[in-house]
Specification:
By secondary structure, the protein is an alpha+beta fold. It contains 9 helices and 21 strands. Strands 9, 10, 11, 12, 13, 14, 15, 16, 17, 18, 19, 20 and 21 form a 13-stranded mixed β-sheet that branches. Strands 1, 2, 3, 4, 5, 6, 7 and 8 form an 8-stranded mixed β-sheet that branches. Strand 1 and strand 2 form a beta hairpin. Helix 1 crosses helix 2.
């Protein structure tokens, strides 16, 4: 069975026959064209197909879910029965629901059809750029792909969203080597809907490669001190996602463990901080256009000028908690840039560290974190002294957002996020 609408129609009819009171279902056709590069040489070209059907149904205020990648009529009927059986064995909860009628809409984003020849040429160009200008880099693996996706969402309230999108993805895992010296692995990735630019110009590829080469020679960090940490976009995203996970997402609001539970419309961060979820921003590549609950996705601010404006809540947790539902379920993260050039940010730091990557455990409920600063550099008297190794940093996510020294004018756009550099004070930095 090849027709996406026929699959949706059969699913809807089967749900009615099985007695579903409310339901939503999503059919996805996905096609991936992929180049693999291992050890600096092309090792694989393949085309992958991934078609699927996911169903959520409600009966007697109980919720059931099921998934299948077999889309013949018999498989669909079996998956619907499985979904309703799941609901029957569930626990009734009046907070379960789906979006009311949102109408019908079709979305088209990105480059739906791949240009395989141009993709291959851009990949070869990137490999040659790395060989010529970054000879110490050893490319452990590079995966370059085009994903073509056709999705149809329907629910029993009459909503229908259809989405055609296509994007290119470049993912690299590499390290630097010189004689007996070697660095740890580092990963860089970008999503884009255009092949107009050489890949080396996208995201932070060029800077990341230089920074990894610089890690071959390190300088010692002596003792423990409290200083300024400059969070590069490559690490800032992970810190922000950790903060959001700890303070504003479904589980922590439902369980009432968030320290921001009573902070809506009050100041939780420095006034320089504005953090948005923006799936429709032009700098974000082929992001969400409708939520898992069946609402049309909209951009929204979580923190605006330091003030907490929204939690990141699904319809279910919104109904349970009484707080407003988030306007999307995307993680298309944008942080507003500042006015300070990156070079000036460094010049104004007496002693601190640039954090390229952070490796640590799950932060505590209150936001305390501890881990190793990797691909990082020591700053003293306004100058970058060199790369560091075996350096720990400790702090608190909530306090960090209030101890901002500067936000850079520059940003890095990788198709999934738009992030600046930020300098935060009162971070404990520990060397050998």
């Amino acid at each position: 069975m090849e027709d996406i609408r026929s699959i949706a129609q059969i699913t809807g009819e089967a749900l009615k026959q099985e007695g579903a009171e409310k339901a939503q279902y999503t059919v996805t056709f996905k096609e991936t064209h992929e180049f693999n590069v291992d050890g600096g040489e092309f090792s694989l070209f393949r085309t992958l197909f991934d078609n699927s059907l996911s169903i959520t149904a409600f009966k007697n205020q109980k919720k059931g879910s099921a998934f299948t990648n077999k889309l013949d009529a018999a498989a669909i009927a079996g998956t619907v029965k499985e979904c309703l059986a799941s609901a029957e064995s569930g626990i009734a909860d009046s907070a379960y629901d789906i979006a009311p009628n949102q109408g019908k809409e079709c979305f088209r984003e990105g480059s739906y059809e791949p240009d395989a020849d141009k993709l291959f040429e851009r990949t070869k160009e990137l490999m040659e750029e790395i060989r010529t200008n970054h000879p110490k880099i050893v490319m452990e693996q590079m995966i370059v792909s085009h994903v073509k996706n056709h999705t149809l969402y329907q629910n029993t309230n009459g909503t229908e969203f259809e989405y055609f999108w296509g994007e290119y993805s470049i993912e690299m895992m590499y390290s630097a080597h010189e004689g007996e010296r070697t660095t740890s692995f580092f990963g860089s990735s970008v999503n884009t809907d255009s092949l107009d630019k050489p890949f080396i110009e996208l995201g932070s590829f060029a800077k990341d490669l230089c920074d990894v080469e610089a890690q071959l020679t390190t300088v010692p960090v002596e003792g423990k001190f409290e200083g300024v940490a400059v969070l590069a976009p490559s690490s800032l995203g992970s810190f922000i996602y950790s903060a959001l996970g700890n303070f504003v997402t479904d589980s922590v609001i439902l369980e009432k463990t968030s320290i921001w539970l009573d902070k809506l419309n009050t100041k939780v961060a420095d006034e320089s901080i504005t953090i948005s979820i923006a799936p429709t921003d032009s700098r974000i590549c082929c992001s969400e256009r409708f939520t898992g609950d069946g609402f049309k996705s909209e951009d929204y601010n979580i923190i605006e000028d330091g003030v907490l404006k929204s939690f990141m809540l699904s319809l279910y947790v919104s109904n349970k908690s009484g707080f407003e539902r988030a306007k999307s379920s995307s993680f298309a993260l944008i942080m507003k840039n500042g006015e300070t050039p990156y070079a000036d940010m460094i010049k104004n730091i007496k002693k601190g560290i640039i954090v390229g990557r952070f490796s640590g455990g799950q932060p505590g409920t209150n936001g305390d974190f501890s881990g190793i600063a990797k691909n990082s550099f020591l700053i003293e008297d306004g100058e970058i002294k060199g790369a560091v190794s075996e350096t720990m940093i400790n702090g608190n996510l909530a306090e960090m957002l209030n101890n901002v020294v500067a936000v850079s004018k520059e940003t890095v756009e990788d198709g999934n996020s738009v992030l600046p550099y930020i300098a935060v004070d009162k971070i404990v930095i520990s060397g050998k």
